[in-house]
Amino acid sequence: MRVLIVEDENLTARRLEGQLLKYDPSIEVLAKLPSVAKAVDWLRTHPAPDLLFLDIHLEDDLGFRIFEQVQVSTPVIFTTAYDEYMIQAFKVNSIDYLLKPVNYDDLVAAIEKYKALRQHFAAPDLSALLQLVTKPSEQAYRDRFMVSIGPKLRSVEVSDIAYFFLEEKVVFLTTQQGSMLPLEYSLDKLTQLLNPRQFFRVSRQYLVSLGSIDSIHTYSAGKLRLELRPTPRHEVFVSGDRVTDFKDWLGR
């Protein structure tokens, strides 16, 4: 079986590849692609794979956009962090799904389903799904992240995250308990993935949760200084050009 993985989180893509090979060492992972643009280019220049694993949110756009730019008849298994309402939509449209972090038994079940039904698969009709995903009132946000700790993987609930910060070109999350863990996302990407009612990008270096803010102090040049819990390694400021939006966010 020839498989294409379209996933912008490198750790997740590598883990999925490992799980596929555990299930069947003869599976050939043709490529691991992080964006709509790269997936479209690959699909235009290569024979169609037998099965496509597709993340919903890629680094440049929604994964669905691939099907607007290139004809794809390959069966699709989505990897998603959507809630149960969205999961029902996938079921209705006869497209299988895997919740992140991907559970091995769920992966096996999805592949077995594909094998049983592959003769009846056609190109997916994604219009209804695209409409659901792009409705602001029904926007789904990440509720967990997979992080690498040495040779181990750990799932961290968003509700347990106090803030994210950038240091020496690496993004870290800090948990409510003070654990600092590296993450394979940019702060720009995290801003898209997280609920804007719960998190705010206060500066180029920090993305903070509402619950982490202990106190707010006025500072020079129109900035605000934040005291966060747990205490960060550096002082945290709300940039002057973000102060108005920050105050609006606090007042929601």
Provide the low-confidence segments as ranges. Answer: none
Oligomeric form: single chain
Strands in their spatial order, largest beta sheet: 2-1-3-4-5
Structural class per helix/strand content?
alpha/beta
Number of strands: 15
Overall outline: elongated
Helix share bin? 25-40%
CATH topology of the largest domain: Rossmann fold
Domains, number: 2
> Which series of helices and strands comes N to C?
EHEHEHEHEHHEEEEEHEEEEEH
Radius of gyration, in Å, reads 20 Å
β-sheet strand percentage? 25-35%
CATH homologous superfamily grouping of the largest domain: Response regulator
The tally of helices reads: 8
- Text of the CATH class of the largest domain: Alpha Beta
First and last CA, distance = 50 Å
InterPro entries: CheY-like_superfamily, LytR-like, LytTR_DNA-bd_dom, Sig_transdc_resp-reg_receiver
Keywords: DNA-binding, Phosphoprotein
Protein name: DNA-binding response regulator
Domain HTH LytTR-type: 145-252
Tags for this entry?
elongated; 252 residues; 5-stranded parallel β-sheet; Rossmann fold; 2 domains; alpha/beta; 5-stranded antiparallel β-sheet; OB fold (Dihydrolipoamide Acetyltransferase, E2P); single chain; 8 helices
Can you put this structure into words, describing what you see?
The protein has 252 residues and is an alpha/beta fold. The protein folds into 2 domains: 2-138, 3-Layer(aba) Sandwich (Rossmann fold), CATH 3.40.50; 144-250, OB fold (Dihydrolipoamide Acetyltransferase, E2P) (Beta Barrel). Helices cover 29% and strands 30% of the residues. The protein is built from 8 helices and 15 strands. It has helices at residues 10-23, 36-45, 66-69, 84-92, 104-117, 127-134, 187-193, 243-250; strands spanning 2-6, 28-33, 51-55, 76-80, 96-99, 144-149, 152-157, 161-167, 170-175, 180-183, 199-201, 206-209, 213-218, 224-228, 236-238. The strands form 4 sheets. Strands 2-1-3-4-5 form a 5-stranded parallel beta sheet, sandwiched between helices. A hairpin with a 7-residue loop joins strand 14 and strand 15. The longest helix has 14 residues, at 10-23. The termini are far apart. The model has no long low-confidence stretch (mean pLDDT 85). Residues 2-115 form the Response regulatory domain. It holds the Pfam family LytTR. Keywords: DNA-binding, Phosphoprotein.
